[in-house]
Design a protein that fits this description.
Layout lengths: L1 H9 L4 H36 L4 H27 L11 H30 L3 H30 L19
């Protein structure tokens, strides 16, 4: 009986494994969320050296970060809530989501490093650096973040068993 339970726990769809896989997805999406703020804060920090950051600019930075996080969460929910037959089909969404989340985090960190280098050498202002940084970030990083959220949402869709199917070896099973 114990060996049967041990084998059932090793199955991919076993009760204990599903929750752990979801937590892994949440961890990687949290990594994306955390790294989203890094280049924007680097932009504010670098701009503060050259000139005073206005409340409007601060509000723009925070609103942009929260908008991005909202898009990521919405994409995750869309991927999770859409029926499997609808929406874009992704082969191996867990792997695709993992790769996209890592790419988005790396792109955020790379942009932060570029901003750090540009602003420390040339002492560019917030407005000057925002002219190139904003479009690059919105066209490069945000779509990758949204795709990662969608894939991770697709990977966390619970597998529904048809009625009457019972897993052998579990308590209460025949």
């Amino acid at each position: 009986m114990n060996r049967e339970l041990d084998e059932a726990e090793k199955e991919p769809g076993a009760a204990g494994n599903g929750m752990q896989e979801r937590r892994t997805g949440v961890v990687f999406l949290s990594l994306v969320v955390a790294t989203t703020f890094i280049p924007w804060m680097q932009l504010v920090e670098g701009g503060a050296d050259a000139s005073f950051i206005s409340p409007t600019e601060s509000g723009l930075v925070l609103a942009t970060c929260f908008l991005s996080v909202g898009g990521l969460i919405a994409a995750w929910l869309a991927g999770r809530r859409l029926p499997p037959e609808t929406g874009p089909r992704v082969n191996r969404p867990r792997d695709a989501g993992l790769v996209l989340a890592i790419l988005a985090a790396a792109a955020n960190l790379l942009l932060a490093a570029v901003l750090r280098g540009r602003m420390s050498g040339a002492h560019g202002s917030f407005a000057q650096e925002l002219q190139w940084f904003g479009p690059v970030w919105f066209l490069l990083v945000v779509p990758v973040q949204i795709a990662a959220g969608y894939c991770k949402g697709r990977a966390s869709i619970p597998i529904r068993k048809p009625a009457g199917v019972v897993r052998a070896g579990l308590p209460g099973a025949p």
